[in-house]
């Protein structure tokens, strides 16, 4: 039996979504194959050993604090209350969202600990999280993305709504470059809305993207794999307005997921091809959800690539794989095995040129 450490929570606006996903994973993981240690990162960024029953809406600020001891032969994750290591995990199931969760930072930490982990590696995580950098690479790969401009915090006072809309049209979207779950994202139709949106977006990041609105269907594709990734059919998000945080997670009526989406075979092949090309262009591994727009003319635009998609009971990623014949427990097993396989391959690389 393999021992898995599930890490959730985090010092991020997406903390609550991470906890919801963790509860679903705990309920579905095959306990005949895996034993699980739950590690919660509270809202202050402290790592804590948790009992599964402790998880509520957030990771509670209670439970033994943990420290890391890279290279410690008896275990690298140490309880501070008794100075004893917890059982060394065979793999880490990361279900952290947003900054310090899917931006390459914790992935780098786990690389230092030499532990396998679910999700893309440091590079794929960091570039996919930064929508500005990601879209530059997607354009370089010949994929379509929305036109837009990038603004840093020190440049925001020079922004002019009239000139932006003259170039990008109206409405426009304002979004933090490094955030997910539609946090800080605004659809803007007036100068007054623009001022409010800019102020809010800069609360979450020092870099903000202002983009044209793509008129088309919002479709998502789940991708799984390392060297030879596979893609599902696509799901569709149907909303009356923009797909906000509340539409995703709080309102039962604001958004509806259509799985699979009704698209022609030609359009489906185009969407799946674009999803796989985007996955590879951004150096993704293990898993990602590729979000796209399909215009009335059949043109596909990549909106973003989510490297640690949600695993809540309404999340698109596991639902798409379930439709493809991969039930939730089997999906979790495949993700863990992919992370271990990648780790084993990487350990074959030399660490000294003298050997």
What does this protein structure show overall?
It is a single chain. The protein is α+β, with helices and mostly antiparallel strands. The chain has 3 domains: 116 residues, Rossmann fold (3-Layer(aba) Sandwich); 126 residues, ATP-grasp fold, B domain (D-amino Acid Aminotransferase, Chain A, domain 1, 2-Layer Sandwich); 65 residues, ATP-grasp fold, A domain (Dna Ligase, domain 1). 30% of the residues lie in helices and 25% in strands. The protein has 10 helices and 15 strands. It has a 5-stranded antiparallel beta sheet. Strands 3-2-1-6 form a 4-stranded mixed beta sheet. It has a 4-stranded antiparallel beta sheet with strand order 7-10-8-9, covered by helices on one side. The chain is globular. The two termini are 34 Å apart.
In short:
By secondary structure, the protein is α+β, with helices and mostly antiparallel strands. It has helices spanning 15-28, 105-112, 122-129, 131-140, 161-168, 191-201, 245-249, 265-281, 316-323, 328-346, and strands spanning 2-9, 34-41, 47-50, 66-68, 77-79, 91-94, 148-152, 172-176, 186-188, 207-212, 217-225, 230-239, 255-258, 286-294, 300-306.
């Amino acid at each position: 039996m393999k021992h898995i450490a599930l890490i959730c929570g985090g010092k991020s606006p997406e903390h609550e979504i991470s906890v919801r996903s963790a509860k679903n994973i705990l309920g579905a993981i095959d306990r005949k194959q895996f034993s699980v240690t739950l590690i919660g990162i509270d809202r202050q960024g402290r790592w804590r050993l948790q009992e599964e029953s402790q998880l509520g809406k957030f990771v509670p600020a209670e439970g033994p604090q943990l420290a890391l001891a890279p290279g410690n032969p008896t275990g690298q994750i140490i309880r501070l209350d008794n100075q004893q290591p917890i059982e060394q995990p065979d793999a880490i199931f990361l279900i952290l969202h947003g900054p310090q969760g899917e931006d390459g930072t914790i992935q780098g930490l786990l690389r230092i600990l030499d532990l396998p982990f679910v999700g893309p590696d440091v590079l794929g995580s960091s570039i996919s999280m930064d929508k500005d950098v990601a879209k530059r690479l997607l354009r370089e790969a010949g994929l379509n993305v929305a036109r837009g401009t990038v603004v840093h915090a020190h440049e925001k006072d020079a922004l002019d709504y009239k000139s932006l809309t003259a170039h990008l049209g109206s409405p426009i979207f304002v979004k933090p470059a490094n955030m997910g779950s539609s946090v800080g994202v605004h659809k803007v139709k007036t100068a007054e809305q623009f001022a409010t949106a800019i102020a809010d977006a800069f609360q979450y990041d020092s870099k903000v993207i202002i983009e044209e609105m793509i008129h088309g269907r919002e479709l998502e594709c789940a991708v799984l794999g390392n060297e030879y990734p596979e893609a599902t059919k696509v799901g569709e998000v149907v909303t009356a307005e923009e797909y906000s945080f509340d539409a995703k997670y709080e309102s039962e009526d604001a958004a509806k997921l259509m799985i699979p989406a009704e698209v022609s075979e030609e359009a489906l092949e185009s969407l799946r091809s674009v999803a796989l090309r985007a996955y590879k262009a951004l150096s993704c591994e293990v898993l990602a959800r590729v979000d796209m727009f399909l215009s009335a003319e059949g043109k596909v635009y990549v909106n973003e690539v989510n490297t640690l998609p949600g695993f809540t009971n309404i999340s698109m990623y596991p639902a798409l794989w379930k439709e493809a014949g991969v039930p939730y427990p089997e999906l979790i097993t495949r993700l863990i095995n992919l992370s271990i396989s990648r780790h084993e391959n990487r350990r074959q690389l030399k660490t000294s040129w003298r050997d």
